[in-house]
Amino acid sequence: MSCKCQLLKINSILTLIHYLSARCIAITGDSGGGGAVQTIFNPLKSKLEDLKRFIRCLLHALHKGWERGIIASTGPTGINNNSPTQLAYASINMLIVLKEECGTEQYREYLLLSNGNWQEEADRVLPQFHNKWLDFLNSDDYGAIALAMEDALTGIQRAVSSRWQTLIPGIKIVVEHPLEIYFLAKVIASDKSRLRSSYLVTCACDVIALMNIRATPIPTLTEDVSNNDNNTNRAAATSTTADVDMSESEESIPEPELSLMTCTGTGCENQWHGRVGMSGTLCGVCEGTEDSTNSSSAEASSTNNSSSTTSTSNYYDEKLKPGQSSTLMTELTFLHGFAHMYSNFFTLTCRPDKRFGSNSYAQIAGDCVVRCYLMRKAVLDMMKEGGLENIPAFDMYRKALEGIPYMNGDVTKGGREFFAKMEKVFFEEFLASYKDHVEHWRSDMLLPYILAGNKELAKEFITWLVYYAEHGDDAEEYTWPDETVELAGHDTTGKTTKVNIAECMGYLTANAKPREILEDVLITSQKGQLLMYGASDDHVDLFDESTWSSPDEFKGLQTLVHTMVLIHPAHNQGVESYIHAVGTITKTGVGPKRASARMIVHSMLVRRHNIESLTAKRERQTDKAKKDMVQRTKDKERNVTFANTLDDFLANIKRRRGKTEESQNEYDNKIKELIAEYNTTEGKAIESLKKKKLMNFEKAAKTDLVTCAAMEKKDGAYVPPAIGQKIIAFFLRVKETGHKEAVHAEITARGITVDPVLFANMGWRAKIALLKKHELGELGKKSMATINAKPMTVGDVKNIEPFSAELKALLPQQNEWDAKRRTK
Fold first, then answer.
1. Is residue 288 over pLDDT 60?
2. Which of 302, 526, 684, 772 could cross-link to 557 by cystine, CB 3.0-4.6 Å?
């Protein structure tokens, strides 16, 4: 909703507040867009004297970093966009359609009909997953394997980077079942009964083509061992594109250094710039040989026997050769690794606070301040040299990197240089978004919310305030204790999290104004109890009255925190839950009509039943501890209570729809007719169609799998502007030296003709629009003018591939500008 529309609703909000005789002390809203909460806060604040704070929806804020990082480092989703997210999108769409048809477990069973050629293709396409493929083929319990994937697909939605929590489950399925997905796609594409233009076949061909994209090793790097010029060029190219000079400041993001590395191969002295661990310790020459110091005779023997398909004991552990790894699957394993950490914090944001029960959904503001530090630290740790080495979630990524070759310093070829830059761009873009949307929790407005979090940091915060209250404006900078504490509640596994107080609180308060915070109503309202709490023993907890010395010791402070901090939701999804329920219904794969009908049932029956059955179950419990543990009804109890709820609901409908016995009977008969009609006509037709599809699939699986042009991508993986050789349109500025001349040269090089008089009077934006329009035409020639399966417009063109030498000469300047933009 636009900002203007939001402002028009302010009077309605004010009317409601006055009608209820309520006080509005804080608001929560979207973190981005025209109607962002920070946009409407000041106009609303001028009308409400009690309004002091706002929160940017934390779920929205976290997702923006994930989305921006993916697009900046790997590219957008869309047909003919050779990006990892498009691979996930096409794979999940294909599986969803198959599940709607007959269920994926029945289709996957026919993959057991595979012959030796299939296994050879598996070895060629995704060799590191060959073990899992043979386990699938040789399993004694096919049902368990089928069920594993079927369970993963339960509730799955189409994997779109702009839609919360849809891409991560999609990526997980693809990286855990890649060869099953690949051969399902191959059989679908070989099924002659399906139209070649159908959406399912299009997705299948896209999956095949995208999985087969890989970087081909440069012959000179494996043939001419004595030539060190290639390594020198690689070092220069990588240094130019990946190393960014950043001034050291409190807000700077530590650089993931590309160190000068020396090959450890026998007799080799080649050097290059790379990441220790992630880039390996062998140069591109030695990595392709078998006589290096890292390749023993035993390993060489194992490599020579790798073509065997009967033994799977050590295949995965063998070192992949350059060129064996799929580029996009490698990118997906990186995103899968990062999602492990990211999902921890996103999931915690979706959960209630354990201290206050299930009804505290979104009332987690006390924990969000310290989590602002914890998540940023986790990302910075990943960015350190070798930072991904000790993180198990990146094991698959490290394995895949073995099969990625060096490309002589060219970051556009999908080699090791590309992946080193991809990591860097992703992390920087994520943190740039994090600063915009999440670090709001460090503001003077929200920093006092730490009082409702972990008691250890809450007391340190109070001590910090007391120091500045006692020493006044002339106080020297406060020194935080260099001690480590273990905090509970910040890991979905239940483990505690170790935090250095000086590092954590130093970051959170770096830009704080203690004198202004001391005047905050949260500090002044219960100042006496606040000081007592700050000076209390370590075991004293504001929310555990058993640790107090008297029943009223901290009652006033506790009430204040409950009514002014915890009442403020960290996100606004509770309000939007009914809207999100539409998404829940569509997860089942039904069409729009049935989804609409189910949505009514879900809202009127399921939600009502959940509340009523849970309340009734808790009332039957006399033990308080057991009563608090009751979270839901299940099994027979749930079925019985739901049936009772449904009976009451239907009885109510009958009373409203028909006041006579005759009309009620007519209503009952109509329902019976509808059910009978479905069972006799539509139901049988559906079952017949399912059998036919399965027979055609079985027939295709038994024949040789076909290959066609749609299964090939000749232009390689998508290289984003931040990594590759494209100019970002909004980088071009008329007042920047050389930009005007470069744009004019580019217009000429592209053969764009404009009347000289008109061109002389044309504004800067109009000239850029000429380039974008022409670029759109070029994308159309390559069948790449789509975004999320929709035709692109001129406004969708964000990047321009240079035709002229003048525009291409601006690339180094853009790389420096883009890096500073992401890290400022």
1. no
2. 526
